[in-house]
């Protein structure tokens, strides 16, 4: 059994995911989740305020990324800072099969999809604030966060899809894809600039 599954929170997450998949989010109750996890409702509420939160793993990802940002050497650019921090993401990843099931359940349930978007926005705001605290101006920090978020989403999708993939290697490949996609951007924007 994986380490994360041995604790109460992991058992509740697994039970909720299974029940959401089997009978739907709307028809699943907190009592059913707790019972499936062989815990009490009280235990459930010790970890989560409601059933919608059960698949969102608290603030683990945010804490890991903010700590990783602090560890990046001073003077590193905004986007490279985030990309370096993103190498720490696997520390909070669940097993691939869990992540695949989780993504499908979230996509099929509007309340969960809404919560996912709220969590992503909150994470982006925290990352932007961390970059501003390192001395970057707000527009630069926000742009780096938005671009970095796109790279991280692509990386995560690719990593989940390939059981043999190394996260750091996939992240580097996704960053290289970003460079390739934007390589002609300066020339295009310069050519499109209005003449006076």
Features:
single chain; Arc Repressor Mutant, subunit A; 69% helix; disordered N terminus; elongated; 196 residues; 2 domains; Tetracycline Repressor, domain 2; mainly alpha
Structure description:
The longest helix is centred in the middle third of the chain and has 24 residues, at 110-133. This protein has ten helices and no strands. It folds into two domains: 1-55, Arc Repressor Mutant, subunit A (Orthogonal Bundle), CATH 1.10.10.60; 57-192, Tetracycline Repressor, domain 2 (Orthogonal Bundle), CATH 1.10.357. Helix 4 runs parallel beside helix 7 (110-133), helix 6 crosses helix 7 and helix 7 crosses helix 8. It is mostly helical and 196 residues long. Helices cover 69% and strands 0% of the residues.
């Amino acid at each position: 059994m994986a380490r994360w599954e041995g604790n109460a929170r992991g058992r509740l997450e697994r039970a909720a995911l299974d029940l959401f998949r089997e009978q739907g989010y709307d028809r699943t109750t907190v009592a059913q989740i707790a019972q499936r996890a062989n815990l009490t409702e009280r235990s459930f509420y010790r970890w989560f305020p409601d059933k919608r939160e059960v698949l969102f793993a608290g603030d683990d990802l945010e804490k890991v990324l903010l700590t990783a940002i602090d560890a990046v050497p001073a003077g590193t650019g905004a986007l490279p800072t985030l990309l370096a921090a993103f190498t720490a993401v696997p520390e909070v990843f669940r097993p691939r099969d869990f992540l695949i099931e989780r993504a499908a359940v979230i996509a099929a349930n509007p309340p969960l999809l809404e919560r996912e978007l709220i969590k992503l926005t909150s994470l982006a705001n925290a990352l932007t604030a961390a970059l501003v605290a390192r001395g970057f101006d707000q527009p630069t920090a926000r742009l780096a966060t938005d671009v970095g978020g796109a790279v991280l989403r692509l990386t995560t999708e690719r990593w989940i899809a390939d059981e043999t993939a190394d996260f750091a290697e996939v992240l580097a490949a996704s960053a290289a894809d970003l460079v390739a996609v934007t390589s002609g951007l300066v020339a295009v924007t310069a050519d499109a600039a209005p003449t006076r």
